[in-house]
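Let's study today's protein:

:::
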Amino acid sequence: MSKDKIVVGVIAGAFGVKGEVRLKSFCAEPSDIANYSPLHTEKGEEYTVKITRTVKNGFAARLSGIRFKDEADKLKGTKLYADRALLPELPDDEYYYTDLIGLDVLDTGGTKIGKIAAVENHGAGDILDIRGPGVKTLLLPFTREVVPTVDLAARRVIVDPPEESIGKEK
């Protein structure tokens, strides 16, 4: 997906039998996901979103063109993207994941470690997935202590990882 689209949520599956979906929002204010409609999929499909109610870990929502449970079931796991122009500008110390992916990763001595392959968040905070020569996967917490510098203009981040995490292929 291009940099002009930002992932704002994912369809967690069908909700009920009338074509509603269970929607997980990645927005700072979760209900804002409906404000960025229409949302797009990686396949180029477009959906308008109407939140119908709050459910555990997300929302029940109606997507345009989805009328039956079997149609909603097929969308499970589908990421939903919003046009970047509709999203708010971020403060200097916040970043959209898509802006970080592909940035060079250097240690505090200037040695290149690799590139950011992905940014994950499994509930305890953001994790940078770094890949490069000699480092198949290096996972680092995205904190000020470990990542003191993010320079989007120079397309790089400076990291200060714990000694034991560098130089080991996983």
